[in-house]
Design brief:
The complex is a heterodimer of chains A (about 110) and B (about 110).
Chain A lengths: L2 E5 L2 E4 L5 E8 L5 E7 L5 E9 L2 E4 L5 E7 L2 E6 L8 E8 L7 E2 L3 E5 L1
Parallel strand pairs in A: 2-11
Antiparallel strand pairs in A: 1-3, 3-8, 4-5, 4-9, 5-6, 7-8, 9-10, 9-11
Chain B lengths: L2 E3 L3 E5 L4 E8 L5 E7 L6 E6 L3 E5 L2 E6 L4 E6 L8 E8 L7 E3 L3 E6 L1
Parallel strand pairs in B: 2-11
Antiparallel strand pairs in B: 1-3, 3-8, 4-5, 4-9, 6-7, 7-8, 9-10, 9-11
The chains are: A mainly beta (about 110), B mainly beta (about 110).
Chain lengths: ~110, ~110
Amino acid sequence: SQTIHQWPATLVQPVGSPLSLECTVEGTSNPNLYWYRQAAGRGLQLLFYSVGIGQISSEVPQNLSASRPQDRQFILSSKKLLLSDSGFYLCAWSPGRGEPQHFGDGTRLSIL
Amino acid sequence: GQNIDQPTEMTATEGAIVQINCTYQTSGFNGLFWYQQHAGEAPTFLSYNVLDGLEEKGRFSSFLSRSKGYSYLLLKELQMKDSASYLCAVSLNTGGFKTIFGAGTRLFVKA
């Protein structure tokens, strides 16, 4: 069966520091991968999605970036975090476009 | 633009039936999903509707009317553990099959 791993679970970072969140999927090949952010009491905001290695689509212009160095690895990065980057970050995968997405456990990011 | 509306909060009694409505206005439609999200946790997939009609899965059922831009999630025999947020999401058939999520409905189940 397929599983998705996301880490770390919680992270506290100072303003201006870099960020790297990692997500890996097991048990499937060539998944579609997604990064979302969820502010408290709000819906999910799609940040990036990828349909293959090295193929990244950005939905929201911001100081975040994403990379997909391997088929089942998706990384969310920032060179300099802002206070507004705080939130609950979720990685998800789906077998193909338009199919149900399955989420990792999420990373709760607090910026001080 | 893309818009998904669902009630912010609902309260129901253990053992009862509750219906959570969702209306959407989107440019392009590929399918509609319902997810359950417990506080502090990630969403988990519940159901998927592509065609009009009712999809039943145990205590959960989901209905879709594409012409009306309307869906509902029906939860039967409510249990305390059903207290959670329920997210309605629409998959678009444009822009790389992007999925748009509603803000969610917080359901409180009381004894």
